[in-house]
């Protein structure tokens, strides 16, 4: 990701700090745009006995994450940057693989989503730590979004958990492994 060339930023923040904050926020914008499209893909492609429960559980997640993307883009603009929301920029700059599960059972999709949420939340937390020294306003935004993402992750994991608290996806390192383990 290229360092943004800012003409101005918010009062009290150096141009250098603002540029780094814009980079961090842009990374989350890519992640949220990808996540809400992935969630919608899952919504359309789940099948099986628990179809309606998962189908209906996913839509509010899509809408919330889509809202996160808008908030992130507006934060970039507030800091003097130009948010990048085109499909090409997302594909060019993402650091993760394309979601690989097509039509599959609810359990398979939820297994894959367990890993997706792990990746998104972990990257948010990395950014949150860095923002501690850069910008507490943006950090607060990240914290609020992490709170919601962790709740959604729990919704997903509740379908993957056995009565002793073990996850069917434990140890999986790819979406396909997690989908197979959950299925």
Automatic annotation (TrEMBL):
Classification via PANTHER family: DNA PROTECTION DURING STARVATION PROTEIN (PTHR42932:SF3), GENERAL STRESS PROTEIN 20U (PTHR42932)
Species this chain originates from: Nocardioides kribbensis
CDD domains found in the cross-reference section: DPS
Identification of the protein by name: DNA starvation/stationary phase protection protein
Family note: Belongs to the Dps family.
Record domain Ferritin/DPS: where: 34-162
Lineage: Bacteria, Bacillati, Actinomycetota, Actinomycetes, Propionibacteriales
Pfam family, one: Ferritin
